[in-house]
Design goal:
Strand content: 15-25%
Order of helices and strands: HEEHEHEEHEEHHHEH
Number of helices: 8
Distance between the termini: 10 Å
Number of strands: 8
Radius of gyration: 16 Å
Largest sheet: 5 strands, mixed
CATH superfamily: 2-enoyl-CoA Hydratase, Chain A, domain 1
Number of domains: 1
CATH architecture: Alpha-Beta Complex
């Protein structure tokens, strides 16, 4: 990701963070002096049901052409099926992903990072197996509703190695493994 684009994203991240709202999904169009119009999406806090709709609504409210679309991530994860739905939408609409230096992307946030056409990680990325609050029945409910939940298939869609899903499955839901720069590169996340 070009340095000017990263700098613009970080400035916009600061602006988005300073607002009084505590929304998990924020979308804002901005004008950069050199790059032109940018669309910034910020996902923070827990990823929860309804965030896909908030993302879609924000994208629809900001139609037009943009010199760049940047996804800023600072999330502790949450609903894996919701993150996969959001990731597919972000990929389809052409976003690059950025984890700012003070940001984290852990748990199901990895699905959003994976969706970025270009990925830049300045902060920390952590892996673990997703939690299903209702046990395995939560996964069965997602399948019953017609939602696809297959981490390996999703990562293949995003042109990432399936071994990323294997690695996630090795880590207990209550533990976290922060990926090194080399691991991020090896998994195609950097």
């Amino acid at each position: 990701m070009p340095t000017a684009l990263i700098q613009a994203a970080l400035l916009l991240a600061a602006a988005l963070c300073s607002t009084a709202t505590l929304a998990r999904v924020e979308i804002e169009a901005a004008q950069h002096k050199r790059l032109g119009p940018l669309l910034i999406a910020k996902v923070s806090e827990d990823i929860a049901p309804g965030d896909y709709e908030a993302l879609l609504k924000g994208l629809r409210a900001n139609p037009g052409r943009f010199a760049g679309k940047i996804l800023l991530l600072d999330s502790i994860g949450g609903s894996a099926p919701e993150a996969i739905r959001m990731g597919r939408l972000l990929r389809e609409t052409g976003f690059d992903a950025l984890v700012p230096s003070r940001g984290v992307c852990q748990g199901s946030c990895i699905y959003l990072l994976a969706a970025g056409h270009k990925k830049t990680v300045r902060g920390h990325v952590g892996l673990h197996r997703p939690r299903f609050p209702s046990g395995d029945s939560a996964l069965a409910q997602a399948v019953h509703r017609g939602e696809r939940y297959s981490p390996s298939a999703y990562f293949r869609e995003m042109n990432l190695p399936g071994r990323l899903a294997d690695e996630m499955q090795r880590i207990e839901p209550h533990k976290m493994r922060v990926l090194s720069t080399q691991e991020l590169a090896g998994f195609g996340l950097q």
